[in-house]
Amino acid sequence: MIKQAEGIVVSLLAGFYDVETSSGIVRTRARGVFRQKKQKPAVGDYVKIQVDDHGTSYLIEIAPRINRIGRPAVANVSHVLLVMSAVQPDFSLQLLDRFLTFFSWKKVKVSIYLSKSDLATEEELLKIKKILAYYEQIGYPVFYSWQDLSAKISKMITKKQIWTLAGQSGAGKSTLLNHLKKGLNQATAAISTSLNRGKHTTRRVQLFPLGQGFLADTPGFSAIDLTPIKLTDLRNYFVEFKKASVNCKFRSCQHIKEPVCEVKRLLKAGQIRQSRYDDYVAIREEISTGRIPEYLK
Q1: pLDDT tens-digit profile of 23-81?
Q2: Cα separation of 43 and 10, whole Å?
Q3: Are 41 and 17 in contact (CB under 8 A)?
Q4: Which of 170, 219, 173 lies closest to 195, judged by CA?
Q5: Neighbours of 136 (CB within 10 A)
Q6: Contact call for residues 17 and 27 (beta carbons, < 8 A)
Q7: 32 is an annotated ligand-binding site residue
Q8: End-to-end distance of the chain based on CA atoms, in angstroms?
Q9: Is 173 annotated as a binding residue?
Q10: Averaged over 207-214, what is the pLDDT?
Q11: What is the CATH number of the domain that holds 105?
Q12: 192 has binding-site annotation
């Protein structure tokens, strides 16, 4: 007798999918029909599996997704915990704005966690905190210690939500995960100081139960492709620009040379950071030309 069950893919490794169902974890493979349709199940997918009389199980159906982000991918992400290091590798405003733009485009909420603050000098940390105060002001929660984050995150992850860690390589995502979910003992590794970037230590993507939902650990990445974003839509992915734009003279204002631009007025008044506007202009150039910025090469 063939049985069917529904669940969520919590782990993927070497072609096997671990699906959490109401009766426990089932390890399964995907049917060949997905290859024919050029589909690939991802961790976070809600799926249907089929088990035959011999106990052999197959993944047979993928429910519609909210989104699919990362590499390897996580599906149905509700929230990203963006890990940015204070030092080793150095804190980068340009990378921060790239990540925030990318996740805004993907319609995913973001909280920011500053790692390695204990390794920064008092002067370095003060400078970064002043910068991040602006991001808190425009709506991004910021955490400076894993203890503070750990005390709140279980309540922040509501039913069936999937949170994922993201951020530059070597920023300390696996270390943070070890703090948040005791006993996982995710591998950590030293930073390659010659390149000022981290070595990838996460080899798989996996969901761990936390709060009423899940937290995913994924490999770090320091470069993301923003060129698929439609140039005229980019303004909407800078949250403070979108809020201010209702007071621009023109509904289609791109905040570049148009008259009576509220974004430019707030920029001049110091209420929008110059670095945010500069990064907006730089990303526009990147989308227009398809050229990779020098700092990412």
Answers
A1: 889 999 887 777 777 788 999 999 999 887 777 788 989 999 999 887 778 999 999 99
A2: 5
A3: yes
A4: 170
A5: 12
A6: yes
A7: no
A8: 56
A9: yes
A10: 89
A11: 3.40.50.300
A12: no
